[in-house]
Amino acid sequence: MDGHDADCKEANANARLACSLIHSILRVNQNLPQVDLCGMTLDSVGADKLLDHVFASLSRGKGLWVVTANLDFVRRFVKDPAARSLYSDADVRVADGMPLVWASHLQGTPLPERVAGASLIRPLCRRAAEGGWRVYLLGGEPVAAKAAADKLVAEFPKLQLAGLSSPWVGAPPTQAELDDVTATLEQSRPDVVLVALGSPKQELLIRALRERMPHVCWIGVGASLSFISGHLRRAPVLVQKLGLEWVHRLWQEPKRLFRRYVLEDLPFAAVLFSRAVAARLAAPAHRPGT
């Protein structure tokens, strides 16, 4: 009788999982709505719909590459042809920065919300735990990555952590580096790999690895593992919503971030907003009945 009950429970769990996957597939449009900012195409989805898309793709045996693009990504996209080619190779690009959301509203093509990589990891791990998907943490400082892994497993006990490693790779990675990372990942059999190496190093690595492991979902998450571990502190939620998280980051790491945030990204924000306004003014006026 006990064995029968156990079989029934397992069957019910499998049925719930199957229903969840079918529901996710039905909800997700293969062609996500998109917004163009300075030539970069961003998918106009929030975090929930993005995760619907990710796990629906995985359930079909199809991997994908997600880029969470902030202002610095768009700046490099505009100014550097190599970066433009790199970011354009991703399957999905979402806005990880309030300046991008503001610019989309100025342009008249509003994005629904900011989708920050650091805010995506916990809900992704929750869904992975519920669905039995294996998650791998690649990159980050070794101590921070291990602490982040411990916290995620403690928070989501059913999470199948496929592994973690913090390899040194170049930008772009060498053939030997690729071979080493590939061997480690193939042994771990992950479904989702969160790559925490910073941009563009993480994107260069992902572009090379996805050709070898096309069934995997790859997401570049930058410094997110340090946020989860507590080695870096995220800005308060209100500061994030005000679009001032960069000030908080600059305060914590002034030497590393001053040039990027103050000398490069701030001037480009003016370019982004001016182009957004120009695009709105150039758009044909909507007429009733047309």
Describe this structure in words.
It is a single chain. The chain has 13 helices and eight strands. It has 290 residues and is of the alpha/beta class. It has a single domain, classed as AF0625-like (Rossmann fold). Helix 12 packs antiparallel against helix 13. The N and C termini lie far apart (68 Å).
In round numbers, the mean pLDDT is: 86
Tell me the CATH architecture: 3-Layer(aba) Sandwich
* Widest sheet: strand ordering: 4-3-8-7-5-6
Q: What is the domain total for the residues?
A: 1
User: What's the number of extended β-strand segments?
Assistant: 8
Distance linking N and C termini: 68 Å
Q: Which CATH top level class fits? A: Alpha Beta
Strand fraction band?
5-15%
* Category from helices, strands and their pairing: alpha/beta
CATH superfamily: AF0625-like
Report Rg. Answer: 20 Å
Count up the helices: 13
Order of helices and strands: HEEHEHHEHHEHEHEHEHHHH
Low-confidence stretches: 4-29
GO molecular function: hexosyltransferase activity
Protein name: Glycosyltransferase
Keywords: Glycosyltransferase, Transferase
